[in-house]
């Protein structure tokens, strides 16, 4: 069953367990590949993760002159191939979310590959496995659909769960998951 | 309940997920080394080198389902860390005490000989009680049990206490006197997301127990309510339906104010109160004066918020009250606990699924470690030294005469007082770092220096080890096996993933070998494995409140843990407490306590106008002796800081990231300012997981709760001073 990374941004507590776990997947050279931002650091404790969204037509791969960024059959946009990457950093500039990181010593781009060793067999990526708050989840399309209904998207105030820059394999629930909730009493 | 089919409940979060198995690796099933969430994890072990090389989520653990905080993810990095102590260390030059200097490596035999000579010498000259043991509860039940026996039978001293005195003792005191028993949680954690209202007081849950958070958020996703009482807008308070942003140290007034409104609004479950509690009228009289106006005046919380919180809690079909160190680390910690338990008792929100009360235990084995005889006044199974019947039973298990059982000792912080008076002259310290975690550190450091002889058992050279004459290398949690009891009261199994590094030995083995050399071998020599100790400790707990007799390692494995009490082979354990509405007082009723408000030991004044409160950050655990050495965690939070509200900062003319001097009547330290609106204007906050000149406990106060002897870490008075850079060289 196809599963996707699914994000509920406002659950984030900023523990950065996803970053710690990213170093632990076995295929990541112990370097983390995502980001957690303090949204308003001098004001409150709001944080948010910035994960690769695994675009269907990814700007990083499109901008690569060396075809170093492959797209796995699951849709995961992989890290640059060591033997092909020429270190031009086009991808790091092209990505509208600033996801690809660059290792100057190795002259190599590296990015989230959805822990492809795991996710190709349906095992959740490390970040979604450990996330203590369910900000990051690994769900089937049916589960995501249920989530969208549950959170009452497209209320008359705003629309959650839209695609962002273009079609992505990751689904994001924009803030507002509690807006449509009917209180129990 | 039929034992054969019993399995502790799995809930809708549970998913069957296969683990990733790398070639030449074995996955060893265990739990995290840190807090009482005791998150399930697998350690990845290279089968060729027998070395732990990583972590894999344990999706099938019903409490945490593979989830881990950043400490848990990186916990394995402690094991083969370059800072591990691999051989015993001896320091001959006593003048170097309090520094890292002067240690030389020695053999175990030389270290043992020196300890035996010094311990025997002190006891011959100054009596048996001149020695003391200071333990900790980041150890297995087996080790905690044996540490109690080691002190009382091996060393024959009355002076043993442990770091839970700084952590869980107020919760224990409050739960015992209100409910007659101290099982930290009356419900399994798998109930939390199903309740309708969560009232959480004094817990920065998102940072201190992160893997509870998915269940807590789920309460809101179901349409339930989240009420948070905390001086700071912590990540959990940020999303609360009501955030009661009280002044540190005023929790008792807040709880009384809520009780006042529960009574006034008719939210009292009168049947329940009549049939299952005592003391309602007296309690009612005390809370009578705690109108929203008075409560607001004392706590600084807006009246409307207090009214709203009481209404939401009172109307809830099912409600759970959770609390933690925020309400417990005060001179009225026990009263605070009883006051919050009062709330659940008057509304009948206890003794059924989805409703109850729990303290969110801090240390990994904070629950089990306080039940089996490490506490100054306690014997295994939550028995009391003051009770002759209890002494008789435990003596019979230990093979000593009841008259040989040492009397009650004193609490952790009070032991430093006895060191000052030279009543205590020798110390055997294990699994704790009181040179960072104690309040009023300038005083504590002086007393540690003042000791005639000190042994520290640890796997890293902690700040406390710097005061020792002998340091013995022990193992990390992953190099030994045994049981711990998690936040729920569920006994679980820790497994060995790697052989002890270097010459390190598990604590229990060190205590057995030392006892043999002290001529007490006949009480210890039969304990050759952790399993042997488990067999003896379950027997020692048999018949006590915390009865583990039936919680065998096999049963733990088979049913995903065993909740105590578990009295025999057939008993599957007790996930929910008080389902029969029988509390553990002799008449079967719970006690409602009438608790007049009293201020903190040190209220702010003109000279020290700010309230100082302390706590943790998500990246560090307790004194930081472990987590400050882990690169990822250190990178994320390398240094402590002082949180200041922007208006307060403006008053002092200090800015974000500026270094300031923070001081109290007892000490001072320099911190970088972290400006945030998520704190009260009258309060500053500093995390406590750092040592030496970075320790906030240089400033905190050694005032103790009269019942639990818990120091008031959470509220003292302090002042900030801008550093004049012209004067700094």
From TrEMBL, chain A:
SUPFAM superfamilies: 4Fe-4S ferredoxins. Keywords: 4Fe-4S, Electron transport, Iron, Iron-sulfur, Metal-binding, Repeat, Transport. One of its GO terms (molecular function) is 4 iron, 4 sulfur cluster binding. Residues 3-33, 39-74, 76-105 form the 4Fe-4S ferredoxin-type domain. It comes from the Bacteria. This is 4Fe-4S ferredoxin-type domain-containing protein.
From TrEMBL, chain B:
Its EC number is 1.7.-.-. GO terms for cellular component: membrane. Pfam families: Molybdop_Fe4S4, Molybdopterin, Molydop_binding. Gene3D superfamilies: 2.40.40.20, 3.40.50.740, ADC-like domains, Dimethylsulfoxide Reductase, domain 2. It comes from the Bacteria. InterPro entries: Asp_de-COase-like_dom_sf, MoPterin_dinucl-bd_dom, Mopterin_OxRdtase, Mopterin_OxRdtase_4Fe-4S_dom, Mopterin_OxRdtase_prok_CS, Prok_molybdopt-oxidoreductase. Its cofactor is Mo-bis(molybdopterin guanine dinucleotide). CDD domains: MopB_CT_Fdh-Nap-like. It is an enzyme of class 1 (oxidoreductase). One of its GO terms (molecular function) is molybdopterin cofactor binding. SUPFAM superfamilies: ADC-like, Formate dehydrogenase/DMSO reductase, domains 1-3. The keyword Repeat does not apply. Keywords: 4Fe-4S, Iron, Iron-sulfur, Metal-binding, Oxidoreductase. One of its GO terms (biological process) is respiratory electron transport chain. SMART domains: Molybdop_Fe4S4. Residues 25-83 form the 4Fe-4S Mo/W bis-MGD-type domain. The keyword Iron-sulfur applies. This is Assimilatory nitrate reductase catalytic subunit.
């Amino acid at each position: 069953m196809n599963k996707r990374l699914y994000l509920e941004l406002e659950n984030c507590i900023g523990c950065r367990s996803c970053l710690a776990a990213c170093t632990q997947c076995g295929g990541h050279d112990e370097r983390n590949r995502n980001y957690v931002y303090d949204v308003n650091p001098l004001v409150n404790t709001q944080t948010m993760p910035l994960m690769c969204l695994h675009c269907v037509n990814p700007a990083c791969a499109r901008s690569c002159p060396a075809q170093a960024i492959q797209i796995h059959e699951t849709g995961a946009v992989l890290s640059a191939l060591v033997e092909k990457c020429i270190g031009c950093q086009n991808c790091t500039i092209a990505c509208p979310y600033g996801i690809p990181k660059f290792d100057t010593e190795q002259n190599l781009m590296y990015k989230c590959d959805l822990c492809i060793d795991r996710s190709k067999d349906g095992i959740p990526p490390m970040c979604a496995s450990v996330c203590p708050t369910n900000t990051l989840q690994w769900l089937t399309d049916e589960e995501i659909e249920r989530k969208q209904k549950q959170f009452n998207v497209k209320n008359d105030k705003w629309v959650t769960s839209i695609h962002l820059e273009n079609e992505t394999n990751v689904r994001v629930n924009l803030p507002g998951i509690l807006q449509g909730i009917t209180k129990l009493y | 309940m039929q034992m054969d089919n019993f399995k502790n409940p799995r809930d809708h979060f549970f998913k069957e997920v296969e683990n990733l198995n790398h070639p030449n690796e074995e996955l060893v099933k265990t739990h995290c080394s840190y807090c009482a969430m005791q998150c399930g994890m697998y350690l990845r072990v290279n089968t060729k080198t027998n070395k732990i090389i990583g972590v894999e989520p344990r999706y099938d653990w019903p409490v945490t389902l593979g989830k881990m905080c950043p400490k848990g993810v990186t916990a394995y990095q402690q094991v083969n860390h370059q800072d591990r102590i691999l051989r015993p260390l001896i320091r001959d030059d006593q003048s170097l005490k309090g520094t890292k200097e002067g240690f030389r490596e020695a053999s175990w035999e030389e270290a043992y000989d020196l300890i035996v000579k010094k311990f025997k010498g002190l006891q011959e000259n100054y009596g048996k009680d001149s020695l003391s043991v200071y333990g900790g509860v980041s150890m297995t039940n087996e080790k905690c049990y044996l540490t109690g026996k080691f002190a009382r039978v091996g060393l024959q001293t009355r002076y043993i206490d442990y770091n839970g005195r700084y952590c869980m003792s107020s919760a224990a005191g409050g739960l015992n006197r209100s409910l007659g028993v101290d099982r930290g949680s009356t419900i399994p954690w798998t109930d939390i997301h199903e309740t309708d209202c969560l009232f959480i007081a004094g817990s920065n849950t998102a940072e201190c127990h992160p893997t509870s958070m998915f269940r807590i958020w789920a309460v809101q996703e179901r349409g339930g309510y989240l009420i948070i009482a905390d001086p700071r807008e912590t990540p959990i308070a940020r999303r609360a339906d009501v955030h009661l942003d009280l002044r540190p140290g005023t929790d008792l007034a807040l709880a009384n104010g809520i009780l006042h409104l529960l009574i006034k609004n008719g939210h009292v479950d009168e049947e329940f109160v009549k049939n299952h509690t005592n003391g309602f009228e007296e309690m009612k009289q005390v809370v009578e004066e705690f109108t929203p106006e008075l409560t607001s005046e004392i706590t600084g919380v807006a009246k409307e918020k207090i009214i709203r919180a009481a209404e939401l809690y009172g109307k809830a079909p099912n409600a759970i009250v959770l609390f933690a160190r925020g309400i417990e680390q005060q001179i009225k910690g026990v009263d605070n606990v009883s006051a919050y338990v009062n709330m659940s008792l008057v509304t009948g929100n206890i003794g059924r699924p989805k409703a109850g009360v729990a303290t969110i235990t801090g240390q990994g084995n904070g629950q089990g470690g306080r039940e089996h005889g490490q506490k100054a006044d306690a014997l295994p199974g939550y028995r009391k030294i003051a009770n002759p019947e209890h002494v008789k039973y435990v003596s019979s298990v230990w093979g000593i005469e009841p008259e040989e059982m040492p009397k009650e000792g004193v609490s952790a912080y009070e032991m430093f007082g006895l060191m000052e008076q030279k009543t205590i002259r020798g110390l055997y310290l294990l699994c704790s770092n009181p040179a960072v975690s104690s309040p009023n550190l300038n005083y504590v450091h002086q007393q540690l220096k003042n000791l005639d002889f000190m042994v520290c058992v640890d796997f890293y050279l902690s700040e406390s080890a710097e005061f020792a004459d002998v340091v013995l290398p022990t193992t990390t949690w992953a190099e030994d096996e045994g049981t711990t009891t998690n936040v729920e009261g569920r006994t679980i199994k820790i497994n060995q993933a790697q052989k002890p590094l270097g010459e390190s030995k598990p604590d229990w083995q060190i205590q057995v070998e030392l006892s043999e050399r002290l001529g007490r071998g006949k009480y210890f020599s039969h304990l050759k494995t952790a399993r042997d100790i488990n067999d003896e400790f379950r027997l020692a707990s048999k018949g006590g409140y915390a009865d583990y007799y039936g919680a065998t390692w096999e049963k733990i494995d088979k049913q995903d843990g065993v909740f105590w009490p578990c009295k025999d082979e057939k008993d599957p354990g007790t996930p929910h407490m008080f389902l029969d509405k029988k509390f553990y007082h002799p008449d079967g009723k719970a006690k409602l306590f009438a608790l007049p408000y009293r201020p903190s030991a040190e209220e702010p004044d003109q000279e020290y106008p700010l309230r100082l409160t302390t706590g943790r950050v998500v990246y560090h655990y307790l004194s930081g002796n472990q987590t400050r050495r882990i690169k990822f965690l250190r990178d994320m939070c390398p240094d402590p800081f002082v949180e200041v509200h922007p208006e307060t900062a403006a008053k002092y003319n200090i800015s974000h990231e500026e270094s300031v001097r923070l001081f109290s009547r007892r000490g001072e330290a320099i911190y970088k300012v972290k400006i945030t609106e998520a704190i009260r204007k009258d309060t500053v906050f500093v995390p406590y997981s750092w040592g030496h000149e970075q320790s906030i406990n240089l400033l905190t106060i050694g005032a103790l709760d009269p019942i639990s002897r818990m120091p008031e870490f959470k509220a003292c008075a302090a002042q900030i001073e801008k550093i004049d850079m012209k004067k700094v060289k």
